[in-house]
Amino acid sequence: MKLLLDEMYAAKLAQALRDQGIDAVTVAELGLAGRSDGDVFAAATDGGYALLTENVSDFARLCSEHVVAGRHHFGVLIALSSRFSRRPAGYSAIAAAVAAVADDRLDDRLVYLEHQASAWRG
Question: 3-state DSSP call for residue 51?
């Protein structure tokens, strides 16, 4: 799985994902910091990446518009801020949730990540 992490995620989370065998890169690492959500979505699509974000409203709309227009994307993973912390203590939970869906067919899907039993610590 190739995964692009939206701007709210740190490079250390990308490294934690790489440690799990996921080809992860941040928006900042691709030189896209400060760009619009549309630009980030286009970069993910053009680069063959699924996208990890907590920005439901913008990316749900972009996904829908993209598919309705007959175009293809590689999936958008939503890690709701009410479920997952972006702080370093939350990296293992996000990485486990991503790993749980990494082998699924994500093409043209919007997927809400869930805590995995082994990563959840209350």
Answer: strand
Three-state secondary structure call for residue 42: helix
Distance, in Å, from the CA atom of 44 to the CA atom of 74, rounded to the nearest integer, reads 8
Cα–Cα distance for residue pair 15/95, rounded to 1 Å: 10
Contact in structure between 53 and 59 (CB atoms under 8 Å): yes
- Quote the CA–CA distance of 22 and 14 in Å, as a whole number: 9
Burial of 49 (C-beta count, 10 Å sphere; 0-12/13-18/19+): buried
Q: Is 23 helix (H, G, I), strand (E, B) or coil?
A: strand
Q: Within 10 A of 28 (CB to CB), how many other CB atoms are there?
A: 15
Q: What does pTM read for this prediction? A: 0.92
Query: Mind listing the pLDDT tens digit for each residue in 17-58?
Result: 999 899 999 999 999 999 999 999 999 999 999 999 999 999
